[in-house]
Amino acid sequence: MEFLNGTEPVHDLTYNDVFMVPSRSSVTSRLDVDLSTSDGTGTTLPLVVANMTAVAGRRMAETVARRGGIAVLPQDIPLPQVRATIGAVKDSHPLYETPITIEPGAPVAQLLSVMSKRAHQAAVVVEDGSPVGIVLESDTEGVDRFSSVRDVMQPPRVVLEEGVEPRAAFDLLEETRAGMAPVVVAGRLAGVLTRTGIVRSGIYTPALDATGRLRVGAAVGINGDVAGRASELLDAGADVLVVDTAHGHQDKMIDVLPAVVRARDEHEAATGVRVAVAAGNVVSRTGTLELVEAGADIVKVGVGPGAMCTTRMMTGVGRPQFSAVLECSDAAREVGAHVWADGGVKYPRDVALALAAGAGSVMVGSWFAGTLESPGDLIRDADGRLYKESFGMASARAVRHRTREMSAFDRARAALFEEGISSGRMFVDPARPGVEDLVDQIVSGVRSAFTYAGARTIGEFHTRAVVGLQGAAGYDEGRPRHTSW
Ligand SMILES: NC(=O)C1=CN([C@@H]2O[C@H](COP(=O)(O)OP(=O)(O)OC[C@H]3O[C@@H](n4cnc5c(N)ncnc54)[C@H](OP(=O)(O)O)[C@@H]3O)[C@@H](O)[C@H]2O)C=CC1
Ligand SMILES: Nc1nc2c(ncn2[C@@H]2O[C@H](COP(=O)(O)O)[C@@H](O)[C@H]2O)c(=O)[nH]1
Ligand SMILES: [K+]
């Protein structure tokens, strides 16, 4: 990346402080851009879902991996639950969406409680493993909640066989005006396909492990038996390990990281599978180099930009994220490592700018909390807008949860240090309720940014991006105006 006309910034920069100028391009189509990463995570999109309890659960992990990204399960989740979640992600179909299923005899009330969990917002009625009906959200309107699903379901208009040619499946759905179709293997339900899902499967490549199953990562903190938990996570099938703490450039991190790397190496020796280790968070060149020296393959960068994060207001500590990513990526590149730009991403442009600054991937938290696939419940506010709650991993709420096994005294002491908000509202965009809708938006923005820079790959984008500096008026000029002024 170079600054426009050789400008030297005199202060550190946020994403809003910068813009990119187009360069002559030989990339003639946005579809010629390849967004695969080279950080060892096996992702085909540079998107990582942040290890936050309100964001990264089973549905999020599976849905994002199917399109080429990866989610990191939070460190606060008990191991048996992490195992179950990784297992569920690995068991889900790499191509077909996981349906909401219900038995014909179940009450409609039960169906309504799960209907909003998936973006296709329809359920497959299953009897003895086979799809016998479909219920759309509209079928349940005005229906007695105690009536049974059997009374509201319709027979599936189309049932597809596994391996069906995508274009043929699309045409069948189009002809029959079916919103979605169950896909079966020997008559048993394997997943569902929607028209949008079919189009997506032609554009995206799932992030798959060596055995063809969807990838998912898991995080570990720096306290307790860190190497032990890391081994358990590897054993459970985690495809990337994230050693995560607020202040990543501290002795405890430098002490535990080599033990995690040893656990990873032992796992590699036993299985032949090498799992990348990410560690953070830092925002300086030295922090980056020292984490890489301690064994990190990937350094997670960002202190204070997160939407749920109050660190900068509480402590004055942090660093504007564009500059942090730029400096840390330069340092990481010198030693053959990679950076994840973590936090503060609110628009597709921020992802593009993080990649321009040199990030290998970009971590997104709160923005994805406001989707149907995040773990929280859908809530309606007084104006009828749907939202989900998000909260910071250093908020009182998360600390209470993380310290649940400590003594009352230690819990009270831990509760003093609060650096995150406990109840953010992330509104679900009615036009883009699913995380895949946001991924579509991000990826189309990023592909377009690459062609403006004349880059076909993330590596080329790092080299070719030309970045200029702007003030608040420059940023404001770029915003759309939805009403007259
Ligand atoms: N990217 C960011 O800006 C931030 C991210 N977070 C996220 O919150 C989650 C919880 O992280 P964390 O609070 O580190 O909790 P952890 O449970 O991981 O523990 C942090 C450890 O580091 C010690 N420590 C020393 N200095 C600090 C410091 N300034 N802030 C926090 N801990 C410190 C703590 O000791 P002691 O408690 O005795 O001080 C404790 O042993 C993580 O997911 C993290 O990524 C949190 C804050 C900032
Ligand atoms: N200072 C804090 N930072 C936090 C907290 N919880 C999460 N985080 C960081 O934010 C990113 C995600 O950023 P977002 O803007 O996409 O939401 C996450 O990966 C953490 O690094 C917190 O409580 N305090
Ligand atoms: K913030």
From TrEMBL:
<dbReference type="GO" id="GO:0005829">
    <property type="term" value="C:cytosol"/>
</dbReference>
<feature type="active site" description="Thioimidate intermediate">
    <location>
        <position position="309"/>
    </location>
</feature>
<feature type="binding site">
    <location>
        <begin position="244"/>
        <end position="246"/>
    </location>
    <ligand>
        <name>NAD(+)</name>
    </ligand>
</feature>
<comment type="function">
    <text>Involved in the purine-salvage pathway. Catalyzes the NADPH-dependent conversion of GMP to IMP.</text>
</comment>
<protein>
    <recommendedName>
        <fullName>GMP reductase</fullName>
        <ecNumber>1.7.1.7</ecNumber>
    </recommendedName>
</protein>
<feature type="domain" description="CBS">
    <location>
        <begin position="95"/>
        <end position="152"/>
    </location>
</feature>
<dbReference type="GO" id="GO:0003920">
    <property type="term" value="F:GMP reductase activity"/>
</dbReference>
<dbReference type="GO" id="GO:0032264">
    <property type="term" value="P:IMP salvage"/>
</dbReference>
<dbReference type="InterPro" id="IPR013785">
    <property type="entry name" value="Aldolase_TIM"/>
</dbReference>
<feature type="binding site">
    <location>
        <begin position="302"/>
        <end position="304"/>
    </location>
    <ligand>
        <name>NADP(+)</name>
    </ligand>
</feature>
<dbReference type="Pfam" id="PF00571">
    <property type="entry name" value="CBS"/>
</dbReference>
<keyword id="KW-0521">NADP</keyword>
<feature type="binding site" description="in other chain">
    <location>
        <position position="306"/>
    </location>
    <ligand>
        <name>K(+)</name>
    </ligand>
</feature>
<keyword id="KW-0560">Oxidoreductase</keyword>
<dbReference type="InterPro" id="IPR046342">
    <property type="entry name" value="CBS_dom_sf"/>
</dbReference>
<comment type="pathway">
    <text>Purine metabolism; IMP biosynthesis via salvage pathway.</text>
</comment>
<dbReference type="InterPro" id="IPR000644">
    <property type="entry name" value="CBS_dom"/>
</dbReference>
<dbReference type="InterPro" id="IPR005990">
    <property type="entry name" value="IMP_DH"/>
</dbReference>
<keyword id="KW-0520">NAD</keyword>
<dbReference type="InterPro" id="IPR005991">
    <property type="entry name" value="GUAB1"/>
</dbReference>
<keyword id="KW-0677">Repeat</keyword>
<feature type="domain" description="CBS">
    <location>
        <begin position="153"/>
        <end position="210"/>
    </location>
</feature>
<keyword id="KW-0660">Purine salvage</keyword>
<dbReference type="GO" id="GO:0003938">
    <property type="term" value="F:IMP dehydrogenase activity"/>
</dbReference>
<dbReference type="InterPro" id="IPR001093">
    <property type="entry name" value="IMP_DH_GMPRt"/>
</dbReference>
<dbReference type="InterPro" id="IPR050139">
    <property type="entry name" value="GMP_reductase"/>
</dbReference>
<keyword id="KW-0630">Potassium</keyword>
<feature type="binding site">
    <location>
        <begin position="244"/>
        <end position="246"/>
    </location>
    <ligand>
        <name>NADP(+)</name>
    </ligand>
</feature>
<comment type="similarity">
    <text>Belongs to the IMPDH/GMPR family. GuaB1 subfamily.</text>
</comment>
<feature type="binding site" description="in other chain">
    <location>
        <position position="309"/>
    </location>
    <ligand>
        <name>K(+)</name>
    </ligand>
</feature>
<feature type="binding site" description="in other chain">
    <location>
        <position position="304"/>
    </location>
    <ligand>
        <name>K(+)</name>
    </ligand>
</feature>
<dbReference type="GO" id="GO:0006166">
    <property type="term" value="P:purine ribonucleoside salvage"/>
</dbReference>
<feature type="binding site">
    <location>
        <begin position="302"/>
        <end position="304"/>
    </location>
    <ligand>
        <name>NAD(+)</name>
    </ligand>
</feature>
<dbReference type="Pfam" id="PF00478">
    <property type="entry name" value="IMPDH"/>
</dbReference>
<keyword id="KW-0129">CBS domain</keyword>
